[in-house]
Specification:
The protein is mainly α. The protein has 2 domains: 89 residues, Winged helix-like DNA-binding domain superfamily/Winged helix DNA-binding domain (Arc Repressor Mutant, subunit A), CATH 1.10.10; 29 residues. It contains 7 helices and 2 strands, in the order αααααββαα. The longest helix is centred in the C-terminal third of the chain and has 25 residues. The model has no long low-confidence stretch (mean pLDDT 89).
Length: 163
């Protein structure tokens, strides 16, 4: 009996066609990420990445949240979250403290410098986002982001099923 993965691979090969608009979605996603990153560096910051900004922005809204919970909320794995926190800490944007109720748990706080940098970058991020989505109607924005959410949810199901 062949595995489910083999059946899926065979079906995919049978249905594969260069005319299928989804065949190169990863190339498009990679290119979009490259262009967004280049735009970020040009219009927002060459020092603070969008991921670092996301952590800082989250901390502004939820000060004292655990490193683990922030990582989960922002869909970051443990090692990536640790790397981001280490960089933000070295730059003086974030402080890592032990939770008063659980010494095994690290909680994060924005420093005054982190608050200053966040306040400086936030309008630049809003500008970049407005520029990036300028040609989208409000409905198209919702459809695009909804489609991304749907694809993420499906890929999460696939990953869970395979593990």
């Amino acid at each position: 009996m062949e595995s489910r993965a083999s059946d899926t691979a065979m079906e995919s090969q049978d249905d594969f066609s260069l005319t299928d608009p989804t065949w190169a979605f990863m190339l498009r996603l990679r290119r979009m990420t490259q262009l967004y990153t280049a735009s970020w560096v040009r219009l927002v910051s060459a020092e603070v990445t969008s991921t670092q900004f996301g952590v800082m922005n989250f901390l502004e809204r939820f000060p004292g949240e655990s490193q683990k919970d922030i990582g989960a909320h922002l869909s970051m794995d443990k090692s990536n979250m640790t790397d981001v926190v280490n960089r933000l800490t070295r730059r003086g944007h974030v402080r890592v403290l032990k939770d008063a109720n659980d010494q095994r748990r690290n909680v994060l706080m924005l420093t005054k410098e982190g608050q200053r940098v966040l306040a400086e970058l936030t309008p630049l991020v809003h500008h970049l986002r407005a520029e990036a989505f300028q040609t989208f109607s409000a409905e198209e924005r919702l459809l695009f982001l909804g489609g991304m959410d749907q694809l993420i949810a499906r890929l999460e199901q696939i990953v869970k099923a395979e593990s």
